[in-house]
Amino acid sequence: MLQVSESQVRLGLSAPDKTEAIRIAGRAMVDSGLIDPGYIDSMLGREAVSGTYLGSGIAIPHGLPEARDLVRRTGVVVVQFPQGVDWGGGEPARLVVGIAAKSDEHIAVLQRLTGVLGDPAEAARLGNTSDPRAIMAVLNGEAPTAPASEPVAAPIDGNSIAVTAPSPHGLHARPATALVEVAKRFRAEIAVRHGGTTANAKSLISLLRLGASGGQPLTVTTAGEDAAAALQAIRAAFEAGLDEPVSMATPAEEPAPRAAPADLDYDGRVIAGISASPGVSTGPVWKFQREELTVAETAPDPAAQHRRLDQALAAAAADLRNLHEEFWKKAGAAKAAIFKAHQELLDDPEMVAEAHALIGQGKSAGWAWRAVYEERAGTLAQLADPLLAGRAADLSDVGRRVLRLLAAVAETMAALPDHPVILLAEDLEPSDTAKLDPAKVLGLCTAGGGATSHTAIIARSLDIPAVVAAGPSVLDLENGRTAILDGDGGVLVADPSERDRGRAAEARIKVGERREAERLDRYKPAITTDGRRVEVAANISDPAEAVQAVEAGGEGVGLMRTEFLFLQRDLPPDEEEQFAAYQTMVRAMNGLPIILRTLDIGGDKNVPYLRMPAEGNPFLGVRGIRLCFEREDLFRTQLRAMLRASVEGPVRIMYPMIAAPAELERAKAITEAVRQELNVPPVELGIMIEVPSAVMMADRLAREVSFFSIGTNDLTQYVLAMDRLHPVLAPQADGLHPAVLRMVERTVDAARRAGIWVGACGGVAGDPAGAVLLSGLGVAELSVAIPAVPSVKARLRAIAMADAERTARDALDCADAGEVRALVRQRFADAGGVS
After folding, report:
1. Is 814 considered catalytic here?
2. Which one of the listed residues 454, 628, 726, 737 is annotated catalytic?
3. Which terminus, N or C, of the chain has the lesser number of Cβ atoms within 10 Å?
């Protein structure tokens, strides 16, 4: 741990001004071997950008980040100026702590220094002591200091004004956040008094703990160099309402983040999202709980723990900034304000200082952070005003957001109640969704995610109605509250009326009747009303699903994900194990074609025997065909098993992640060498079209293969530069975006000129609107989740291909996916629920 030695403490010096005081401190740092002389100029430069006076006679000059290479080693020096040096704020600095920060080891010293700030008598004593050991004892943690959190809520002497807490809800999160933002623009100390309690105006939690309801009197006091200007600005902020809307709606009346389709007519509160899986259900909601966050109480390296906490806070803050910006664009400032308030909760000086102080006492970063935010959340929850008390949930949410980055996460899933529920969640991991029992889950509604997320894909495969990207307001619903989940319309309806329930019941009956009719006709081909046929195949992931695909009416398997054989094991499958699995599937298809995709695993999967290093962006790293080339031994073994199985029936082999003709040439050469070794007949070879370069080179690639299969999920995220699992961007990663549709059009055009066919096996193929548009663009085969096979076939039988082609052409000229979906909904309102 960093310690301050006697040689790093200089007592009894004097300086005519701040500049010379900084130079004296800088020369002491040079003498101590902490910095190169050039760093002193950077310290002066820092002072010109932002003042380094902390209060209580203490200043902490340090350099700008770009001068960090001039730091030889991390450390501090303390220079005492008993007569004081004017630091520009009217109060003299008597202890000047020069900081050289090559790493974060100095943080522990600074955290102990904050204790001195809270004890003016102690600060004055150290500013005049003639014993360097007195200063060393405090900064090395050998002497007790006042709690860092005490002074921020202490009364101050200065000029005051009387104001009133904004109506009707008082000093809750949004106005308190606005007040904090104003206060932080000034260096003055600013206190807000309500009754017998005083709060630090620069601390959101401190303000919330006042419990000031609407219309109650407050006193604001300021002291310091810019106190008058601060008081004037705060008066103006209160007069302007502290960002409160002129006419406030109650929480139940607030507009939804996303506009509901105009043709939906519900009396209850409509929370609009994105349709992820069709169907309508009614029942009680239940919040999903998955993770158990565990932390050790103590940690051996406080400096590392200080660093971990700061990094976690910075990462969480960046995430919240993205959320605020995104929801501001979609829903306006009022709806996005909650994320702004969450940012201020993270930047709360009381909470952060107290957590660092606990770390200084030997606690781990996770334990310290949890102790601090849970204590404050408990205090807020006990406030009499229900709206203010409700902010405890916000603080808990923010606290857990940081804690996830500090804790060991035990992957657990809380038991669901005995009765069926509509599950609410911030988002769901694929493994979470896959474990759900459809008998207990009436539907899914997530705050985040997108129509092409794994959650949406698995929900469709389980035939569970789902709505995603509904915004954080869904998590405000209490467990047990009745709601309607309309997966067709993409909305959740809270507190539905009797009329709403009746209409939902009618919709369920109609859906049931429609699905029964689809089931009875599932073996009929998908021939449009004007005589055009589109093949509808199934996506499968294991041998048992091959039988299910045929029974569902699938006209083949358009995508067999072979990864199931390679995951969750210590050694890769050998040739015989793979051959047995592929042979079982080929025989189950009974003459129908099956496309076997070669191994498609990247750095985002934990496969120990592959020894793949963790990648900063695994979707742009070694995955798909690139991995097959890295591990050609695995590739050849898999090809041998596939080609042996091809003797049993029509097998097609498909290569994933092809980005250039050279990769296809190499993959084909290896395949042909293996085929000749086995002396089996040739098979049809195809590639996934999922990266933009493959689309741009489609004319060249089409000459070398028998078919293309468009992986719309990956193509969407690569074209739009949006991770489909990103907590903020996922809702926009919609495969019906015109940019993606134009990629499809270009691919189909290149394939037609080469005389080959094009399929699609991503989530868009099973989307009601996607099936229409892909068919209209010329995609000849749609490979979808097994439960969706009958409905997609029925949908195509209900439309004319000429109409689909016309709509697809018009969709290419739309501005975004929302406009595309509205177009399809308008054109095909009566075609089996296309939306």
Report:
1. no
2. 454
3. N
Residue with tokens 């959740």: 492
Please tell me the distance from the alpha carbon of residue 670 to that of residue 629, in angstroms, as a whole number.
Answer: 10
Contact, 558 vs 761, CB < 8 A?
Answer: yes
- Global model pTM greater than 0.85: no
- Is 454 annotated in the active site? yes
The per-residue DSSP string of 407-436 comes to SEEEE--PPPPSS-EEEEES---HHHHHT-
- Write down the catalytic residue from 169, 172, 194, 356: 172
Query: Is residue 659 within 8 Å of residue 694, measured between CB atoms?
Result: yes
Choose the CATH number for 159-240 among 3.30.1340.10, 3.40.50.1000, 3.40.190.10, 1.10.3720.10.
3.30.1340.10
Looking at domain 293-410, its CATH architecture is: Orthogonal Bundle (1.10)
* Bridge partner residues of 493 (DSSP): 270, 484
- Can you tell me the distance from the alpha carbon of 251 to that of 459, in angstroms, rounded to the nearest whole number? 30
What string of H, E and C letters represents the secondary structure of 378-405? HHHHCCCCHHHHCHHHHHHHHHHHHHCC
Residue 172 known to be catalytic: yes
**Domain ranges (residues) in the chain:** 6-140, 159-240, 269-289+413-504, 293-410, 526-831
Strands 408-411 and 58-59: unpaired
Q: How far apart are CA 737 and CA 284, in angstroms?
A: 34
Catalytic residue among 106, 194, 306, 761: 761
List the chain residues with pLDDT less than 50. Answer: 104, 145-152, 245-260, 262-263, 327, 329-335, 386, 411, 727, 832-833, 835
Write down the CATH number for the domain with range 6-140: 3.40.930.10
Annotation says 194 is catalytic = no
Distance CA 255, CA 294 (A): 37
The CA distance from 593 to 651, in Å, is 6
Which residues, in sequence order, are bridge partners of residue 539?
559, 785
Question: Into which CATH architecture does domain 269-289+413-504 fall?
Answer: 3-Layer(bba) Sandwich (3.50)
- DSSP characters for 442-511? EEEEESS--TTSHHHHHHHHTT--EEE---GGGGGSPTT-EEEEETTTTEEEES--HHHHHHHHHHHHHH
Helix (H) and strand (E) counts for the chain?
31, 27
Cα separation, 835 vs 829, whole angstroms: 7
pLDDT digits (tens, 9 = 90+) for 350-378: 788 888 889 989 999 999 988 888 877 77
